[in-house]
Write a structure and sequence with these properties.
- With about 240 residues, the chain is α/β, with parallel strands linked by helices.
- It has two domains: about 20-100, Methyltransferase, Methionine Synthase (B12-binding Domains), Chain A, domain 1 (Orthogonal Bundle), CATH 1.10.1240.10; about 105-238, Cobalamin-binding domain (Rossmann fold, 3-Layer(aba) Sandwich), CATH 3.40.50.
- Helix content is about 60%, strand content about 10%.
- The chain contains nine helices and five strands, in the order αααααβαβαβαββα.
- It has helices spanning about 5-10, 20-35, 40-50, 55-75, 80-105, 125-135, 150-160, 175-185, 215-235; strands spanning about 110-120, 140-145, 165-170, 195-200, 210-215.
- Strands 2-1-3-4-5 form a five-stranded parallel sheet, sandwiched between helices.
- The longest helix has 25 residues, at about 80-105.
- The N and C termini lie far apart (about 80 Å).
- The model is unreliable at about 1-15 (pLDDT under 50).
């Protein structure tokens, strides 16, 4: 039997690595321009990503990726106040481009939501980004971006007529913060006034709490969507 010649395989070229599509390139550039705090570039890259088929959610995912990096770096002391202000301006420039789309999509669930940081450094940026994501998927969301106490966030949410409250917790002593929030919630009589989804990014273990807890923003969005869909089905069946 003749032995097959496999020598050609030794010299064959490896296939070219996959290249990013134009949309993906623009989204990556968008993330980088948010990190750099360049509002004009953010605006241009937002328009470009949309023109190449990107969706509002795609754009906001790219922005949220950048914001999460900024929050992490700020925790390490690598983003000072001036740079944070520039990033905030950059995030706002993206949201302004999307505003018409967000104004239409936010009526889908007929649910009012509030998002706000509790002691989270640079939490105003994450609050803004998460609020925009919620609007894009159907929530009439408001960012209470200034760092607040649990009681302040709950009271302000009540005054705004919120159905859903999404507090963003600081990353130290997370379980202690959750217990403190639960205490304020129960003592203030807020437990039955709205749905609460705590975002606790450094929570470890399997501790049980009398309210919904998400370990990252994506999980929080998933939990909020699931709750809103169930709420809508329940109201239709009533």
């Amino acid at each position: 039997m003749a032995i097959s010649d496999r020598s050609t395989n030794l010299t064959a070229k490896w296939p070219n690595p996959p290249t990013l599509s134009e949309t993906e390139q623009r989204l990556q550039q968008l993330t980088n321009s948010v990190l750099a705090g360049k509002a004009d570039e953010v605006r241009q890259n937002t328009y470009a990503a949309l023109a190449r088929g990107g969706t509002s959610n795609d754009v906001l995912d790219a922005v949220t990726e950048a914001v999460n990096i900024v929050v992490d770096l700020h925790e390490l002391g690598e983003y000072d106040f001036e740079r944070l202000t520039a990033v905030e301006s950059a995030v706002n420039s993206c949201v302004q481009v999307l505003e018409d789309k967000l104004a239409k999509s936010q009526t889908r669930f007929k649910v009012k939501a509030t998002v706000g940081p509790i002691g989270l450094k640079a939490g105003n940026l994450l609050s803004m980004a998460l609020c925009a994501v919620l609007r894009s998927i159907g929530f009439n969301a408001v960012s209470l971006s200034k760092t607040q106490t649990p009681l302040d966030l709950l009271r302000n949410s009540e005054e705004l007529g919120a159905d859903l409250v999404m507090p963003l917790l600081a990353r130290d002593d997370v379980e202690g913060q959750i217990r403190g929030f639960v205490n304020e919630m129960e003592q203030g009589g807020f437990k039955t006034k709205f749905e609460i989804i705590l975002v606790a990014q450094e929570l470890s273990g399997a501790a049980k709490f009398p309210l919904s807890v998400a370990r990252n923003p994506n999980e929080a969005i998933s939990k909020a969507t699931e709750w809103a869909l169930k709420r809508r089905l329940t109201s239709r069946g009533a």
